[in-house]
Amino acid sequence: MSLIDLEKSFQEKIDKEIKIEPKDWMPDAYRKTNIRQISQHAHSEIVGMLPEGNWISRAPSLKRKAILIAKVQDEAGHGLYLYSAAETLGISRDQMMNDLNSGKAKYSSIFNYPTLTWADMGAVGWLVDGAAILNQVMLCRTSYGPYARAMVRICKEESFHQRQGFETLLVLSKGTKEQREMCQDAINRWWWPSLMMFGPKDSESTNSDQSIKWKIKRKTNDELRQQFVNMIAEQIKLLGMTLPDPDLKWNEKRNQYDFGEINWEEFWNVVKGNGPCNKQRLAARNKAHDEGAWVRAAAIAYADKKKNKTTHKAA
Ligand code: BYC
What is the mean predicted confidence (pLDDT) over 114-130? Predict the structure, then answer.
């Protein structure tokens, strides 16, 4: 088959909703885009453990500590499923780790903001995981099979994360004056960065058109962002708190909430490595990687030993 025929039958498969599997023929750019997106997604899960890990030793009760540990462990698991999905496209784990640790690879902008108070654990769960879920529910139908299947399990766990975040804030919102203020302050700080998680506006999104055509993405950045605003603008009423946006109001004609302009300069600054915690996050990942060298060496030595034993037995 010629390249044109291969590309044509590939697109037909996508249009018929047939999943693309690792050994199927695919255009190089499809492979590259998936490697880029899946590995960035995996890195986000791994770096995402840092702002939350920051609160494990300071959670206000044993119950809250156990819940937070479980959540952080889930994020590690998500990262590992996603690295495995990316590996099926021909990139090695070492390469992905090197790209993350050297600062070459991107990960979600949101994890470059600090978690200053306990209420931040609630705001991260409710807003950050809430934004992540909307995006990830769409990705359960992404065209690359291993990515789509990884997302199904991830989404189940993320919905627990979002509920625990909301419940944490609900308790604070019914607490003392100081607790209510802490709750509002966390919402104020996490609202705009959460909106940025969906990526640049559609007119600035370089990858969206092609990714939508290949059904890697099923909704655009702006569509998902709007869906998120509509959802949160209703849920916040239950908390008796407010969102820090004077332009947020229901638009009868559009049947959607209108909202204010995002600070795109701040977004690009964070993406380019100049956010409040970018350097700290990379330093923490590099330290963990270096300190884990002996574990990797021991695991390889053990695997070799086992392999040798099996070879001897077979002989
Ligand atoms: N941060 O053409 P565009 C989670 C980059 S949740 C940093 O629209 P695309 C978790 C983008 O990579 C978060 N960079 O890109 C939750 C591109 O640059 P390159 C992870 C961003 O890919 C709780 C350029 O800007 N979720 O893990 O079509 C606890 C132009 O953008 C961001 C995912 O990763 C950003 N926010 O759409 C723990 C979901 N936005 O690569 C963990 C999977 C954009 O061309 N990813 N950029 O150099 C996606 O769905 C898509 O990649 C995005 C962006 C919607 C994020």
Answer: 97
